[in-house]
C-alpha cells in the first residue's frame, strides 16, 4: 500500500461529493462523464495473471480514536458519549442487539451519519492525530481514507466489473494512467481476479452475492484507504460466501485497520482481535475477543454473549 496521504484539508475546486454516499444514478453519470478505460483480457503482459498471494504486511498502520462521541437523529440521541480506540492492523468487532447504536457509531467515523437529514454528531474522532470533524476538513478526503462496505452488496447496476472498481477513483478525481493496474490489483487483493479476469467488461450485477460483496470491497480498497468500516457485510450472504469474506478480512488486516459491525457473535469470535459490546447507545465492555466471549467482566456482556437476551 502506498505511503499514507493523511491530509483532510479542503483543496480549492475539490468537490465535497462522496462516492460512497452518492446515489447510483449520480455515480453512473460521473462514470459516464469520465474517460472510460476499456478493460482488456490480454494476459501476456498483465501482472494480474500471476498467482494471487497474501499481501505483504504494511507499515505501522493507522489508528482511529473515538472520544465522547454523541450521535443524534433530530433530537433523539442514538450514541451516548462513547470512547473507543481502534488499533492499527487489527479487526475490531462491534456487537450488540438491534438499535444499540452500532451502525450509527461506525457511520460517524467516516461522516456518513451526517448524510441523513436531521442527523448530526458531536465529540471527536481522530485518524492518528487528525480530527475527522475539524472545520477545514474535506469530507471527500475523509471518506477516501476511511472506506465503507455496506450490509447489502451494492455494485452499480449499469457498470461493468472493471468500471465498478474504477468508479471510486474516477469520482475522487484519480484518473491516472495506472487505473487499469490498480483495478486489477484490487481484484487480486479480494481474491476475485481468477474468477472474473476474462469477463471484466461484463455487468457487476451478474456476479453472485458473495462475489458482488468482494467486488464492493475491491471498489473500496482501490482508492487506497487506511481504514475499512464494514457494516454487517455478510448478513445477506450464504455460509460459503461468508467464509470467503471472513478469510478476506483476516488477510486485509495486514494492510488496513478494520472495524466490523456484526449480529453474528460466532463471526466476531472468528475474525476479530478485540470486540466491543454496545447497549442502549453506550459501550458496556471492550476487550480481547477471547476474553469477551469466555470471561466477560460485565454481567450484561455475559448475558448477551450467552444468548440470554438480544
Could you describe the 3D structure shown?
There is one protein chain. The chain has a six-stranded mixed β-sheet, with helices on both faces. Strands 2-1-4-5 form a four-stranded antiparallel β-sheet, covered by helices on one side. The chain is an alpha/beta fold. It has eleven helices and ten strands. Residues 1-5 and 10-55 have low confidence and may be disordered. It is 32% helix and 21% strand. The chain has a domain at 56-157 and 229-305: Rossmann fold (3-Layer(aba) Sandwich). A hairpin with a 2-residue loop joins strand 9 and strand 10 (282-288). Helix 5 packs across helix 7 (209-222).
Return the CATH topology of the domain at 56-157 and 229-305: Rossmann fold
Percentage of residues in DSSP E strands: 15-25%
* DSSP E strands, number: 10
> Over all CA atoms, what is the radius of gyration?
19 Å
Shape: globular
What is the tally of helical segments? 11
Order of helices and strands: HEEEHEEHEHHHHEHEHEEHH
CATH class of the domain at 56-157 and 229-305: Alpha Beta
Give the strand order, joined by hyphens, for the main sheet.
6-7-8-3-9-10
**Overall pLDDT level:** 84
The structural class is: alpha/beta
**Biggest sheet layout:** 6 strands, mixed
Q: Could you give a short description of this structure?
A:
With about 300 residues, this protein is α/β, with parallel strands linked by helices. The protein has helices at about 25-35, 100-110, 140-145, 160-170, 180-190, 195, 210-220, 240-250, 265-270, 290-295, 300-305; strands at about 65-75, 75-85, 90-95, 120-125, 130, 145-150, 225-230, 255-260, 275-280, 280-290. Helix 1 (about 25-35) packs across helix 4 and helix 7 (about 210-220) runs parallel beside helix 8 (about 240-250).
